[in-house]
Amino acid sequence: MELELSHLIDSLPDLVWAAQPDGRAELFNCRWCEYTGLLPLQAAGGDDWQSAVHAGDRPRLLERWRSSLESGQPSEVQVRLRRCDGTYRWFLFRANPLRDASGSIRKWLACITDIEDAKRDREALAASERDLRSIIDAIPTTAWTAR
């Protein structure tokens, strides 16, 4: 069963990790390791995984993580993550607690989704809308649309 679960976690399209109730990382799927270039033993059990997070985003991520550990509530934050070639891309980190029947947290589970392309698309659309607004505002007459 454990081998099957390991294959399942490694087959997920996201980067996935698990942490102990106190927040110490204990498992990273193969996609995390391939993407970051960190070995499973480097990432798990310590803070080495943090080296893959952009230095400018790390304090925000760690503060959100500490807050979730204290409150027991899910966490969600956007940060840049370093790929093994040194390139940074935007990711959405989402962590949820896995609770036992009594409500105690057994583990924290997280999915880390690449949102770089979606973020660029939104920024391009916003820039296009700003450009259109500038053009419309520069027309020396009244402009309107109707349906």
Tags for this model:
single chain; 147 residues; alpha+beta; five-stranded antiparallel sheet; 5 helices; 5 strands; elongated
SSE topology sketch:
Elements lengths: L1 H10 L3 E5 L5 E4 L1 H7 L3 H4 L14 H14 L3 E8 L5 E12 L5 E10 L1 H23 L9
Antiparallel strand pairs: 1-2, 1-5, 3-4, 4-5
Structural commentary:
- There is one protein chain.
- The chain has 147 residues and is an alpha+beta fold.
- The chain is built from five helices and five strands.
- It has helices at residues 2-11, 30-36, 40-43, 58-71, 116-138; strands at 15-19, 25-28, 75-82, 88-99, 105-114.
- A five-stranded antiparallel sheet has the order 2-1-5-4-3, with helices on both faces.
- A hairpin with a 5-residue loop joins β3 (75-82) and β4.
- The chain is elongated and about 70 Å long.
- The chain starts with a helix and ends in a 9-residue tail after the last helix.
- The mean pLDDT is 86.
What's the short story on this structure?
By secondary structure, the protein is α+β, with helices and mostly antiparallel strands. 39% of the residues lie in helices and 27% in strands.
